[in-house]
Amino acid sequence: MVSYKELGLVNTREMFAKAVKGGYAIPAFNFNNMEQLQAIIQAAAETKSPVILQVSKGARNYANQTLLRYMAEGAVEYAKELGWEKPQIVLHLDHGDSFETCKSCVDMGFSSVMIDASALPYEENIALTKKVVDYAHQFDVTVEAELGVLAGVEDEVSAAESHYTKPEEVIDFATRTGCDSLAISIGTSHGAYKFTREQCTLDPKTGRLVPPPLAFDVLHEIEKKLPGFPIVLHGSSSVPQEYVDMINELGGKLPDAVGIPEEQLREASKSAVCKINIDSDSRLAMTAAIRKVFHDKPGEFDPRKYLGPARDEMKKLYMHKIINVLGSDGKA
Ligand code: G3H
Ligand code: 13P
Ligand code: ZN
Prior knowledge:
The protein has helices spanning 13-22, 34-47, 57-63, 65-81, 99-108, 122-137, 170-177, 216-225, 241-249, 262-269, 280-296, 303-326, and strands at residues 26-30, 51-55, 89-96, 112-115, 142-147, 151-152, 181-184, 189-190, 201-202, 209-210, 231-233, 273-278.
């Protein structure tokens, strides 16, 4: 048993309370490899933004949970080396799918876990979430739960349709589970294809797809039911069209990739939404940058020469999200 506190990590409690009051959101960036982690820490240290490092099931399968945990421990020291005296870094399990997975993360030093039982019937979601909360809280580890189901095509997290969170359930759910934050469904979804062509309209000026707006009415009703309670948005990549175009122009194939407009995420950040999950955008930044090196310098075969530019592009993206979208800069 290792406490996250010994590793210099923090849980989400104080961070979320400040974010809800201050009208900004904390970035939750997924990481699978060293370059992503370096870019996240560099961006957070430079902007003095609290940050949540997220480890998904896919990441655990790809990189190994233990290794990722040690990388996060290293990240705290790296942040200090970059001049961030008191780094505000959370190590969070993203979409934990069982009590055992959540427990193993708590036991190895994660400071926050998500139990995603949103696909289960309501009472089963409550029972499993409460079991995780009861365990995690003994060690001051915070717990995110989910109510409502996101649409999405992402491999490990999929649901054919989106079922918006029912505002009439949130008080009962939060009270009976004791969860520290709640992920809700208001129209976001995982991956780079968040809406079909049919769901979008076409901007006549740019020819770009314009997605339907998020269900802010549902969000505001939830806020009214649970004043000040930390709300989380998954599936919040904006799928920057510059990256999509670059990838497509350089031999890739991402037809009709579309995300959540950043103005809507900015608006959500000003509300009780205090954690915004972004993964796909960093995948796009990395892929675009790597494709560019492969296109411009076909003789290049030193991975550092294409992973380096990929890291720089991700850092640029993370800084943009922190400063221009979530507003968390200067808050740590
Ligand atoms: O919520 C989904 C994340 O983007 C993680 O996806 O399991 O493919 O790493 P992954
Ligand atoms: P995106 O696929 O929109 O980046 O969402 C990531 C996410 O919600 C991770 O939990
Ligand atoms: Zn998610």
